[in-house]
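Renewal narrative, Specific Aim 1. Our central claim is that a sequence can be written position by position from structural information alone. The example that follows is taken directly from our test logs and has not been curated for this report. It begins with the structure tokens describing the chain, in the order in which they were read.
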């Protein structure tokens, strides 16, 4: 008998690593609930974010690439009620939930900590940390209560900034360090359940967020950021997504509690 397809929920799914993860999982036969705030450059964009976020058209394009495999949903991970509803919607749409990828994040910075506005820390804490917390709190009960808890996987996208201190990005560093700690604590809480938790830490990857990071450093092009990586090139989102997809697999259990450095040899 053919096993039923695995089901995943991916946040930050409209663009960048989140979108690439949706594509990678669909290519592996998953059904996916693709979640994004779709704030664009409108009034719902978090305070202090100086670049355009993905919008509904971006999210719909991701879903359209995989007819019948993806359900697109607009929701803000800062809102626990919204993540609760999204997790339930994934189960309603596909009958189960096997993997969760918390990829939603923003970046703000460009000054020393003592000159940074408080909203930089507030926003990155709310989106990058609380968003992962909300996603886990909403989804893990479905992983535990599903038909295959031993295959339940929670993956959070951290960053090389989660283990290092990056110049003029103190609030982002703090947020991504917190994501790593959150995942390690979650993995400990899940001991012996079969459900696992992993953080994947990308290096400089060709995304709109990296363009925004380059702008914070007064760079017109992100290419010079590749010099921090031993591969001496920027990563493609699909490369990081392939690592995430492995973490979502049954075989990915071996990585439980780990920080997977999908960073091309990031040396700081």
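The sequence written for that structure reads:
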């Amino acid at each position: 008998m053919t096993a039923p397809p695995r089901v995943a929920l991916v946040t930050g799914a409209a663009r960048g690593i989140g979108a690439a993860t949706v594509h990678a999982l669909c290519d592996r036969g998953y059904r996916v609930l693709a979640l994004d705030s779709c704030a664009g450059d409108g009034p719902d964009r978090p305070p202090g974010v100086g670049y355009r976020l993905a919008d509904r058209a971006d999210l719909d394009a991701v879903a359209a690439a995989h007819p019948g495999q993806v359900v697109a949903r607009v929701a803000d991970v800062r809102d626990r009620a919204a993540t609760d509803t999204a997790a339930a919607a994934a189960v309603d749409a596909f009958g189960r939930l096997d993997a969760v990828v918390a990829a939603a994040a923003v970046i703000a910075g460009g000054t020393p900590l003592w000159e940074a506005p408080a909203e930089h820390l507030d926003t990155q804490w709310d989106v990058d940390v609380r968003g992962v917390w909300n996603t886990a709190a909403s989804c893990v009960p479905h992983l535990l209560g599903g038909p295959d808890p031993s295959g339940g996987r929670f993956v959070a996208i951290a960053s090389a900034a989660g283990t290092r201190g990056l110049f003029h990005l103190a609030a982002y560093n703090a947020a991504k360090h917190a994501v790593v700690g959150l995942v390690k604590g979650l993995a400990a809480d899940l001991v012996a359940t079969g459900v696992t938790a992993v953080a994947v830490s990308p290096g400089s990857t060709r995304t709109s967020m990296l363009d925004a990071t380059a702008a914070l450093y007064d760079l017109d092009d992100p290419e010079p950021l590749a010099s921090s990586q031993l591969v001496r090139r920027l990563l493609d989102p699909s490369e990081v997504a392939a690592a995430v997809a492995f973490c979502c697999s049954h075989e990915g259990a071996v990585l439980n509690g780990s920080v997977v450095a999908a960073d091309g040899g990031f040396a700081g």
